[in-house]
Each structure stands twice: as C-alpha cells, then as structure tokens.
Amino acid sequence: GSVAGIASALLVVTLIWAIGGVQFELDPGRSYLVVLYGWYLFLFVALFEETLFRGFVFQRLLAGTGVWTAQISLGLLFATSHWGNPDMQGATLAWATVELFLGAVLLGLAYLRTRSLALPIGIHLGWNWALGSVTGFGVSGFDQAGWFLPVLQDTPEWLTGGRFGPEASAFAVIVD
Questions:
Q1: Contact assessment for residue 147 and residue 35, using Cβ atoms and an 8 Å cutoff
Q2: What's the rounded Cα separation, in Å, for the pair 156 and 121?
Q3: Cα(94)–Cα(78) distance, rounded to whole angstroms?
Q4: pLDDT for 52-80, tens place per residue?
Q5: Which residues contact 88 (CB under 8 A, 6 or more apart)?
Q6: Cβ-contact 150, 22 below 8 angstroms
Q7: Which of 57, 71, 112, 165 is buried most deeply by CB count within 10 Å?
Q8: Which among 18, 12, 14, 20 has a CA at the least distance from the CA of 153?
Q9: pLDDT computed for residue 108 by the predictor
Q10: Using N-to-C axis directions, what is the helix angle for 56-65 and 67-80, rounded to 10°?
Q11: Using 50, 70 and 90 to split pLDDT, how confident is the model at 29?
Q12: Are 136 and 26 in contact (CB under 8 A)?
C-alpha cells in the first residue's frame, strides 16, 4: 500500500514540476533522521485517520446502508474534517475538498478490496510521507520538513496546491 501511495504522490508532484509549477532545492536542514521521523509521524496520522474513517463507523454503515452510502457519507466527512486546516480558502478549499473526498473513496475501495485496514493505512502513509518528508510540500496545509525544499513558481494555485500542498492541486484530483 505504501508503494502505491508514494507512487501516486510522486506522480502528482512530477506533473506540477512538468508544467513549471515548482522547482526543487535540497533542503539545507535535510537529514535521514527527518525523513525517518516523517515516516513515524505519518504512520500515526494514517493509523488514526484510517481507524476513524474506515474503521468501525464505516464498516457499520457498509453493513447497514450499503457501499455507496457509506463511501459518500465518510468521504464527505473526511473532506470537511480538513476545512479548518491552514491555507484552506478560496480555490484551495474547492480543489482540496474534491481531492480529499476522492481520496477517501479510494481508501474506502482499498478497504473493500481487502476487508482490512492495512492497505488504506499503507496508501495513506505513503502519500503523506512522499509529499511531506520527501518532497517537502505541505500536507493538508501543514508545513513539513523534507529532503527537498519546493519553490513554487508563478503558477495558479489550483495547479500547484499552493501552501496547502499538492492535495489542493487539480493534478491530485486527476490522479485520484
């Protein structure tokens, strides 16, 4: 699961880079410890969010209302739970909400495929870690120390995700 999350995050970042939306520099504060700490941090984020959004409540909704009622309900809840995050306004709010909803549906499908939280946790972990700890982008509006330091270019925020991070990018919506 983590490999799929890393691959999809790096695809989004590559598309942003390909249109000239970002350039990368090595972060002067980079270290293997920062990258490993990011893995540890994002593991707990993924464990918490996947247990909350694909755990008991999702599974009870599946049993009681069916797949798409559960998917849409928890997808909307997941997306709107991020509305208070930093730099979440205007076009960023719209693009990030769509991407987070689609991401939640994807993670729900990963659960449905395996009937285990392991795959959605792995995908979620890989996505956040690659965006934050490797490429240095913000993750859901929160700044991250990474191996690289992204320097956003003069490109519309709806393409790059701006300070919120690539999750608010049109490319993330396409990749999801």
A1: yes
A2: 31
A3: 14
A4: 999 999 999 999 999 999 999 999 999 99
A5: 82, 96, 141, 164, 168
A6: yes
A7: 165
A8: 20
A9: 97
A10: 140
A11: confident
A12: no
DSSP β-bridge partners for residue 25: 149
Structure tokens at 67: 């797949």
* Strand blocks (E) in 4-160: 22-26, 148-152
pLDDT digits (tens, 9 = 90+) for 81-112: 999 999 888 888 999 999 999 999 999 999 99
- Answering whether pTM is above 0.90, one says yes
- With contact defined as beta carbons under 8 Å apart, do 171 and 16 qualify? yes
Query: CA 69 → CA 51, 65, 72, 80, 108, distances in Å?
Result: 18, 6, 5, 16, 12
Residue 150 main-chain phi, psi, to 5 deg = -75, 135
